[in-house]
Design brief:
It contains 17 helices and no strands. By secondary structure, it is mostly helical. It has a domain of about 170 residues. Helix 5 crosses helix 16 and helix 7 crosses helix 14. It is rod-shaped, with a radius of gyration of 46 Å. This is DUF445 domain-containing protein. One of its GO terms (cellular component) is plasma membrane. It comes from Galactobacter caseinivorans.
């Protein structure tokens, strides 16, 4: 059995003192009526009017004793006697827990109640008004900065690197790239989006050829036979440079140049091979693996994470940092939009209602099971004692009321009987 949690509000000592005080008042009324009954019974022959007092006291004692028994039977056996149907809470706590769980599920978590309550949810406007109030956005930003610092302190660089590598391996290394890239390349070529890149390459080639004529001449000279005169080498190199420049210039100016069409055909063929040719697919996949497994790439990723972490830490600690100020300004603007009735507010309220409805409808049985299991785990005697602390003081008014009602009933019955039947 587990111990019950302390009741909130008043302390248990305060509750017990109030309970004992009400018990003494109710018991005192019973004792007082018993004393009155004794004197009235003894003196009613001398003073006949005391018969009415005796009847009232007698009825009051009966009512007080009956209600004392009823109240006491809830929490324990009266006078420790094994009377049936007494000590109900210690003996029936499991059934009480089940009934309480069913009551909560049927009356608080039912679809009808849930729909009616969620229809009244208007969280977004209230939250927006709160955010738009000066100082509140700063408070949220401060708490957010503290959360960011805490997360960055807790998160290990090694863990981040391991998670990043796992994600890369799962989402980038394992899937096949070649077919997807081939399809993408095919669409780009069909739509002509690659022509801009070809234009850039041709422009750069023309500029390079014009700016480096000696490079072309030297290239020819270095690769020509040694017996060929150098003047001839240079003449050939200069002529080759002129023809190359002319070819590239023509290619740049003519969108339908044969070289451009050759590039289009080559790209189209490459796209088809990347999707269907096993050898090309394997080549692309091998390049992908070599790229992702490159230690330099891992080091770049780790360096990027370290720089990002340092930047976030610095921004979180500095209230004047641009990132912090932008975050605060964004929160205030967001709150102002919501408070002004922006359509986004209705969407957010709808999201909240849907989320709350999903959570309650999905887990309401677990919630009621939690109530049932928690009550079942309580110790019976302790549960009765704690429940009596919570409601026992009010139950003592039942004893007092029973005493008063019993006295009035006894007096009325005696008076009617005396009037009808006589002495």
């Amino acid at each position: 059995m587990t111990s019950l949690p302390l009741l909130s509000g008043q302390t248990d000592a305060d509750r017990r003192a109030a309970l004992n005080r009400m018990k003494w008042i109710a018991t005192g009324a019973l004792i007082g009526l018993a004393i009155i009954f004794v004197f009235a019974f003894a003196l009613q022959e001398r003073y006949p009017w005391l018969a009415y007092v005796r009847a009232a006291a007698e009825g009051g004692m009966v009512g007080a004793l009956a209600d004392w028994f009823a109240v006491t039977a809830l929490f324990k056996r009266p006078l420790g006697l094994p009377i049936p149907h007494t000590g109900l809470i210690p003996r029936k706590k499991d059934q009480i827990g089940e009934s309480l769980g069913d009551f909560v599920e049927e009356n608080f978590l039912s679809d009808e109640v849930l729909t009616a309550k969620l229809a009244q949810v208007t969280v977004a406007k209230k939250a927006g008004a709160w955010l738009a109030t000066p100082g509140n956005a700063d408070q949220v930003a401060t708490q957010g900065a503290a959360l960011v610092r805490g997360l960055l302190d807790v998160v290990s660089d090694a863990d981040v690197q391991r998670v990043a590598e796992d994600l890369v391996r799962k989402h980038m290394l394992e899937p096949e790239w070649s077919s997807t890239l081939g399809l993408l390349l095919q669409r780009l070529v069909e739509d002509g989006h690659h022509r801009g890149a070809v234009d850039v390459l041709v422009d750069r080639a023309v500029d390079w050829a014009r700016e480096h004529p000696e490079t072309v001449v030297d290239l020819v000279t270095d690769r020509s036979p040694s017996w060929l005169p150098r003047s001839v080498d240079r003449l050939i190199g200069e002529r080759l440079h002129v023809e190359l420049t002319k070819f590239l210039t023509t290619m740049r100016l003519d969108p339908e140049h044969p070289a451009r069409r050759a590039i289009d055909e080559w790209l189209e063929g490459l796209a088809v091979k990347m999707q269907n040719d096993p050898e090309t697919i394997e080549t692309v996949e091998r390049l992908k693996r070599s790229f992702i497994d490159d230690p330099r790439l891992h080091q770049v990723a780790l360096d990027a994470w370290n720089r990002l972490k340092d930047s976030l830490t610095e921004a979180a600690e500095d209230p004047e940092s641009p990132l912090r100020q932008a975050f605060e300004s964004g929160l205030r603007d967001f709150g102002t939009r919501l408070a002004a009735g922006d359509p986004l507010a209705d969407k957010i309220d709808g999201w909240i209602r849907n989320a709350a409805s999903y959570v309650v409808t999905t887990y309401r049985h677990q919630a009621t099971e939690l109530i049932t299991d928690t009550v079942s785990s309580w110790d019976g005697a302790e549960a009765a004692d704690r429940i009596e602390l919570m409601v026992g003081r009010d139950l003592q008014f039942i004893r007092i009321n029973g005493t008063v009602v019993g006295s009035l009933a006894g007096l009325a019955i005696f008076a009617v009987a005396h009037a009808v039947l006589g002495s």
